[in-house]
């Protein structure tokens, strides 16, 4: 058995990074994990420079230019990439953290990370707002090739290249199957993290001639790594990388249950390739949500869940009610929230989609609002038109006046104020690789009510939140009724659960603790190389 080496040099390749560009939880994971690992090692991040980013204003400096081969099936071609670099200043002692932006026309012409925006549609009516980029696969390949060429140009040989999601999962294939990269990276360990394995998230491509031309991978390799007839980056990574998902239970579901059907049977297919498919549950930095420092979070008052000092939470609830009576710049409001501080407040923040279970939530609220007159609801988010219409109809119903407020759009500060004001946070996801909103809610004393699936099993029923097993509106209704009854009849139980939730995060789920599991996985990637 090879002796595990100390990990000193790590490179991330990602499409998202908190504070620069993001569309979901990947941005938070990448930044917080990178900063946690920087205590132990030198960490470098490579990501695109999108059209909405100004490198100079963000504190980046020029760091060179490269020409990257990006052939089409019948055309040899190159694309120019300019790099920008910024060294991060971290409060922690130890290693270094550097970020490179890959600046190319293909990235600059995008105003959204993964989808076209209204601004894009104005410039080109074919680029419909909300739809995925037509050239998504080429965007991914350009980022991955540019990152590898940057490492070679600067003579940087990482011990580990950590690839985040399908957007960067071709890197292991490129560095093991391409002559131009194979020798330089022969000692580099490769890790791919699957943040979401759901259908539509693999970044697969059906045009195999195009895939071969633009990646430069052998046609035989392309043909051996298909899922449902499409060239799949996760499948292509399997022979050459350690692959993990963002929670232990999600890895189990993909390996051993019929829930894997929602991925197109990716997990089972990976298992046939001998892939172990590990799970490492995401962490969180509690200091980023420290309600004892209300100025940092723009909250109306301070409170401490861990210490049981909750008077400030009531002030936050009152402030939210007042805020929702006025004009809101970044969201469109339907319905109101009357000042009823004695009533429990249910909250939801997220994407309006069936994957997030919001279709089930709409049906459940119809029943709950009619059956129980003594609770309120605040919902923030956007998404599928039909689901949004259902929520809008509920909020506009005069029978529910003052009880339900729908906020369409997103505002980060407003989201924090909703977390702080709420008593219960509903997460009815059909599937959930990990989930971070349950952590955030718990840190605000807002107990999660979750469909016990994927990473949401970290919410312990009756201990750190409320959970239900069946993905149905009826099961959600029963869980909410249980939570409301506990709130009214056993307030001391609610307080104990709030404190237990914060304690569990400190014991198991800080990034300092989670990063240790990644260092172990990196060691395995080197030993198995």
Fold and architecture overview:
Helix content is 38%, strand content 19%. The model has no long low-confidence stretch (mean pLDDT 94). The chain is built from 20 helices and 18 strands. The protein has a nine-stranded mixed β-sheet. The protein has a seven-stranded mixed β-sheet with strand order 12-15-14-13-16-17-18, with helices on both faces. A hairpin with a 2-residue loop joins strand 8 (226-227) and strand 9 (230-231). The protein has helices spanning 25-37, 105-108, 118-123, 136-153, 171-177, 179-182, 208-215, 219-224, 233-237, 248-256, 266-272, 294-297, 311-323, 358-371, 385-396, 412-421, 437-443, 473-489, 491-508, 511-527, and strands at residues 9-13, 42-48, 61-69, 78-87, 97-103, 160-164, 189-194, 226-227, 230-231, 242-245, 278-279, 331-335, 345-352, 376-383, 404-409, 424-427, 447-451, 466-468. The two termini are 12 Å apart. The protein is globular, with a radius of gyration of 24 Å. It is of the alpha/beta class and 529 residues long.
């Amino acid at each position: 058995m090879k002796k595990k080496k100390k990990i000193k040099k790590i490179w991330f390749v990602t499409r998202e990074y908190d504070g620069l560009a993001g569309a979901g939880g990947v941005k938070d994971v990448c930044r917080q994990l990178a900063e946690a690992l920087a205590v132990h090692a030198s960490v470098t991040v490579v990501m695109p420079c999108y059209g909405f980013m100004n490198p100079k204003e963000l504190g980046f400096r020029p760091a060179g230019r490269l020409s990257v081969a990006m052939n089409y099936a019948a055309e040899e071609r190159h694309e120019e990439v300019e790099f920008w670099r910024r060294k991060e200043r971290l409060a922690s002692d130890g290693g270094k953290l550097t970020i490179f932006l890959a600046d190319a026309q293909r990235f600059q012409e995008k105003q959204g990370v993964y989808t076209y925006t209204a601004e894009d549609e104005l410039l080109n009516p074919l680029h419909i707002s909300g739809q995925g980029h037509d050239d998504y696969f080429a965007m991914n390949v350009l980022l991955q090739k540019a990152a590898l060429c940057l490492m070679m140009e600067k003579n940087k040989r990482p011990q580990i290249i950590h690839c985040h999601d399908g957007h960067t999962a071709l890197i292991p294939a490129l560095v093991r199957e391409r002559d131009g990269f194979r020798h330089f990276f022969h000692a580099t360990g490769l890790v791919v993290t699957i943040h979401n394995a759901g259908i539509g998230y693999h970044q697969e491509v059906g045009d195999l001639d195009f895939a071969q031309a633009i990646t430069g991978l052998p046609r035989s390799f392309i043909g051996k790594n298909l899922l449902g007839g499409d060239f799949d980056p996760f499948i292509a990574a399997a022979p050459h990388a350690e692959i993990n998902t963002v929670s232990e239970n999600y890895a189990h579901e993909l390996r051993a249950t019929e829930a894997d059907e929602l991925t197109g049977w990716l997990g089972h297919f990976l298992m046939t390739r001998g892939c172990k498919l590990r799970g490492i549950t995401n962490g969180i930095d509690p200091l980023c949500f420290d309600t004892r420092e209300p100025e940092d979070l723009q909250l109306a008052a301070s409170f401490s869940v861990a210490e049981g000092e909750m008077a400030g939470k009531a002030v936050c609830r009152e402030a939210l009610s007042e805020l929702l009576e006025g004009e809101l710049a970044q969201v469109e409001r339907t319905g109101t929230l009357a000042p009823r501080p004695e009533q429990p407040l249910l909250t939801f923040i997220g994407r309006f989609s069936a994957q997030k279970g919001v279709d089930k939530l709409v049906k459940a609220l119809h029943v709950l609002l009619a059956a129980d007159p003594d609770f309120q609801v605040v919902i923030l988010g956007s998404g599928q038109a039909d689901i949004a219409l259902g929520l809008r109809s509920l909020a506009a119903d005069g029978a529910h006046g003052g009880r339900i407020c729908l906020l369409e759009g997103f505002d980060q500060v407003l989201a924090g104020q909703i977390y702080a004001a709420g008593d219960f946070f509903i997460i009815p996801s059909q599937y959930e690789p990990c989930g971070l909103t349950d952590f955030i809610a718990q840190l605000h004393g807002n107990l999660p009510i979750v469909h016990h699936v994927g990473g949401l099993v970290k919410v312990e029923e009756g201990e750190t939140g409320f959970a239900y097993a069946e993905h149905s509106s009826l099961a959600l209704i029963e869980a909410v009724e249980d939570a409301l009854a506990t709130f009214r009849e056993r307030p001391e139980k609610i307080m104990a659960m709030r404190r237990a939730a914060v304690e569990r995060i400190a014991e198991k789920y800080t990034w300092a603790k989670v990063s240790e599991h990644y260092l172990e996985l990196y060691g395995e990637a080197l030993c198995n190389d």
